[in-house]
Amino acid sequence: xxxxxxxxxxxxxLVDYELGWSLQKRWVAERVADPGLNDGLIVLEHPPVYxxxxxxxxxxxxxxxxxxxxxTVRVERGGEVTYHCPGQVVGYPILNxxxxxxxxxxxxxQLEEVLIQAIAQWxxxxxxxxxLTGVWIEGYKVAAIGIKVSRWISMHGFALNVDCELAGFQxxxxxxxxxxxxxxLIDFVPGLTRAEAQAVVLRxxxxxxxxxxxxxxxxxxxxxxxxxxxxxxxxx
Length: 236
Known about the structure:
alpha/beta, 5 helices, 25% helix, 26% strand
């Protein structure tokens, strides 16, 4: 398949969850208003935070969010509670699915495929589990996926555990799945760094979605990144 077009890449580094979320909403709104804009991919990692999908059940929280040191944020993606922390490769594709394929099931499977192909680069077999969303290695869930689509423009995305601390997952039932433990890539690929993993994920993302990743133009950067607030941004 030939290239479907350009996809802007914005590497934000370590960014507070709400800043990354606000940027997603801005990029989605711009593409809803003008579907001809290029696709985008925001990659980053977050300080510790729990997020709940729009219909998530609080029974999967092992704590009272009002009295916990780590913030809990309810967002518009699908799915149950998950946990973000440094050491994950988090990707938020802002794609016009009409340009690709307007099919949510297909899109979820494509996101899984990006990560399965990336993990295969280290000689490790990752897999799907029927009826569930995400990516597993030897029964351990190493990647969570949750999306929101508005007028076929996507937001939210995936979080791949590379060398993160897993302690934060102990206070929740991740994604509402009680019988599947959470894992991380470094336990299967000793010495792997987040930077190395991100580089491979970006390559497989471009291949699976048939796009060319190019640095995000300065005009599309968020104000907080231009001001240099806690981000290392790829600029064009």
